[in-house]
Amino acid sequence: MIVVEVAALLLLTVAMAVSLAHALEFPGRRRLDRATYVAVQTAGYPGAAVSSLAEAAAVFAVLALLVSTPIGSPAFWWVSASMAGLFGMNVSYWLMARPANKVWLNPQALNRATAAEREAGGPWGRAPAGFDFRRLRDRWEWSHVVRAGLALLSLASLTAAVALGPTH
């Protein structure tokens, strides 16, 4: 089980690092104009697959530790807290980040401009109808602040569980 513990810690660290990096970028990214923000936003998606895979694998590794840890032991409660943090990360992704990602990754939607946006001109007139740039940007950015907090909670809890032992 030590291999599973180390794997879970490493995988969770990768997932936490990406969420934390997003959260630390929050203040600077909110100052970007629309065109720059969208360019920066879509540039990072190819690397997101690595983080997604690490997070999914961390869920399975932590789950394996949870089912193998004696129920009621101090380590069990720490592993449970770690699993709850991972669950929360996933919920916040699907409810907050994913809807925004669907807009950022939809070139057809981003290339359609409403009449008002065409008239307004400006650096970025390619938003879909009803698109509120600031609201969508803030939703995406705050989702990663939430995810970073949950990831830190999850990693700290898993670290405590492994330090306490036995998780097997």
Structure overview:
With 168 residues, the chain is an all-alpha fold. The protein has one domain. The chain has 7 helices and no strands. It has helices at residues 2-29, 34-43, 45-68, 74-104, 107-111, 115-120, 133-164. It starts with a helix and ends with a helix.
Distance between the termini: 6 Å
Number of strands: 0
Helix and strand sequence:
HHHHHHH
Helical content class: over 70%
Q: How many helices in DSSP terms?
A: 7
Structural class: mainly alpha
Strand % is: under 5%
* Count of discrete structural domains: 1
The mean pLDDT is: 82
Q: What is Rg?
A: 19 Å
Query: Low-confidence parts, pLDDT < 50 over ≥5 residues?
Result: 112-127
Main sheet properties: none
Rough outline: elongated
Assembly of the depicted chains: single chain
Considering the chains and any ligands shown, give keywords for the structure.
0% strand; elongated; single chain; mainly alpha; 7 helices; 168 residues
Question: Can I get a quick summary?
Answer:
The chain is an all-alpha fold and 168 residues long. Helices cover 81% and strands 0% of the residues.
Tell me the layout of helices and strands.
Elements: H1 2-29, H2 34-43, H3 45-68, H4 74-104, H5 107-111, H6 115-120, H7 133-164
